[in-house]
User: Which sequence fits this backbone?
């Protein structure tokens, strides 16, 4: 009797294994033929019988990714890696899915892990640089994008991304040089002209900035931040009426743009329209709670209106995000002075003096490094 039971068990096991193999083979065949729904069903049927197959989960991830079902693809790839962490190509697939899902910060870790095992892989290197850039980690993005361009100097996506990264890192001359090269090959690209406009802004070349932003808008009237760039350039040249008009155009396209609301608040404060300016600044802060310049200007408005306790809170909020800003410190000193808190005021003015001295020393040290 025991022999019969063992025989039945072995036969049943063999049947289940054969059935599982049939599901897997049908899944692979359907996947190769592009019949993704059939392939998904067959892989899921296979996994019911063989739930610890990393390969099946990985293939499911590919199917979900091809259908832009990113959450399901991520779960499938992560399950595959949990079952077999040595399947390093899955890290690349996982990074790609996170990138396509615009979860750029999450794309970084799997791409780093894949590159550790395949440092010469161009796709992973470029994608990692782009992920860092889109996650606003510009210092980390630059070396990966530079290595990508060293391998393929004509890659437009890498050139454009690196030019933008250089601009964000205040490496303005390098950014502008790259953008001017890009314009030669892409004269009708609104985005290249837009970035060049921002590069001109960063180097205080305001007439050139105006020209580049206007060119971007002629090519694409819906180019975001171009009107804001124009507003900034006009404001820097003392043309505040034109700046207000351009701010208004930017906010027509995006009412929640933090920088445009802040700049409009700045311009309205200069005109003495304090209540309207404060509303713009409050919008900017709702969008970006760490917007130190908006907090300070809100504090300045409260100060001008004699609401010193409120001004103090708002200015302290600015200092929470930028503790070494001399403008924030000076305003706080003024507030304390008007409140009769002389010792605190004196302490803030002394901090302003210290910050200025540190800046001068740093600038002097930088000048020493310049070859004569």
Assistant:
């Amino acid at each position: 009797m025991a022999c019969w039971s063992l025989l039945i068990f072995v036969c049943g096991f063999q049947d289940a294994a054969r059935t599982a193999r049939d599901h897997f083979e049908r899944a692979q065949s359907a996947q190769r033929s592009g019949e993704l729904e059939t392939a998904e069903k067959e892989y899921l049927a296979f996994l019911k019988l063989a739930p610890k197959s990393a390969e099946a989960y990985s293939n499911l991830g590919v199917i979900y990714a091809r259908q832009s079902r990113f959450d399901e693809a991520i779960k499938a790839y992560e399950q595959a890696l949990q079952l077999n962490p040595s399947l390093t190509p899955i890290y690349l697939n996982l990074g790609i899915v996170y990138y396509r899902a615009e979860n750029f910060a999450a794309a970084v870790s799997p791409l780093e892990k894949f590159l550790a095992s395949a440092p010469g892989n161009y796709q992973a290197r470029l994608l990692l640089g782009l992920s860092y850039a889109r996650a606003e980690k510009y210092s980390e993005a630059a070396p990966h994008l530079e290595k990508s361009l060293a391998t393929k100097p004509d890659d437009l996506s890498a050139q454009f991304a690196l030019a933008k990264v250089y601009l964000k890192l205040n490496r303005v001359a390098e950014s502008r040089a790259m953008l001017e090269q890009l314009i030669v090959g892409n004269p009708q690209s609104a985005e290249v002209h837009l970035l060049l406009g921002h590069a001109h802004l960063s180097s205080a070349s305001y007439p050139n900035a105006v020209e580049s932003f206007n060119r971007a808008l002629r090519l694409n009237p819906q180019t975001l931040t171009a009107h804001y760039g124009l507003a900034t350039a006009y404001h820097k040249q003392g043309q505040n009426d034109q700046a207000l008009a351009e701010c208004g155009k930017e906010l027509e396209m995006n009412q929640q743009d933090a920088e445009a609301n802040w700049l409009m608040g700045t311009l309205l404060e200069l005109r003495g329209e304090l209540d309207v300016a404060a509303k713009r600044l409050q919008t900017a802060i709702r969008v970006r709670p760490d917007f130190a310049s908006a907090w300070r200007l809100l504090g300045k408005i409260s100060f001008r209106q004699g609401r010193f306790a409120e001004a103090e809170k708002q200015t302290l909020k600015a200092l929470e995000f930028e503790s070494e800003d001399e403008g924030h410190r000076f305003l706080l000193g003024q507030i304390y002075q008007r409140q009769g808190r002389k010792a605190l005021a004196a302490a803030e003015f002394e901090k302003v003096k210290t910050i200025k001295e540190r800046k001068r020393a740093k600038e002097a040290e930088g000048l020493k490094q310049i070859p004569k």
Remarks:
- Residues 2-32 form the longest helix (31 residues).
